[in-house]
Amino acid sequence: MATQDTVELNEPHAPGADAITAFTKVLPSIKRAIVDSRAKWDSHEPRMWSRAQGLTDEQLTTFDPETDLVEVRSGITPYGTVLLGKLLIPAVNDEDGEGFIHVRLWDGPNKGTGDLELHSIFTDEGTRDGQGHASTYRAIQTSAKPLEFFNE
Q1: CB 31 within 8 A of CB 38
Q2: What is the Cα 91 distance to its own chain's centre?
């Protein structure tokens, strides 16, 4: 399994054609994961998806990698490539500004995009206190949140 210590990511940059193709290929999985994550978090910690309050699932997942994938990073491991992407959620623009979802994809070696899959969506729980309680809950990031390795 890749960790922050075992994968060296390239610098954040605008997506090229290959990145757009990769995120488009797994787009249905990304959208399903967002809807599932919101439902799960809303049942026990609604602050996680609070920036999407009042939006339908369809409004929340109306985005397209062609126009809304704004930044990517990648890193090669012995067993494949980690791809990170920052996707703009057009329906979110509140007092914190535009909203973004950070997505992690996995592309195994030597199969082209045939084994490309969604790994996870970043849900930020901040630093934990002495009792293990999270300091923040945020699934929809601000533009200022850097696209960094995450392991959820």
Answers
A1: no
A2: 16
How many helices and strands, by DSSP H and E, does the chain display?
Answer: 4, 4
Distance of CA 80 to the CA centre of its chain: 18
Whether the Cβ atoms of residue 101 and residue 87 lie closer than 8 Å to each other: yes
Tokens encoding 70: 């704004």
Range picked from 7-11, 113-117, 120-124 for highest mean pLDDT: 120-124
Q: Are 119 and 106 in contact (CB under 8 A)?
A: yes
**Overall pTM surpassing 0.85 (yes/no):** yes
How many degrees, rounded to 5, is the angle at CA 30 between CA 48 and CA 101?
45
Query: Cβ distance 101 to 124 under 8 Å?
Result: no
- Amino acid code (one letter) for 146: P
Asked whether 110 and 79 are in contact (CB, 8 A), the reply is no
- CB distance 117 to 98 below 8 Å: no
CA dist., res. 57 & res. 63, Å (int): 12
3-state secondary structure of 60: helix
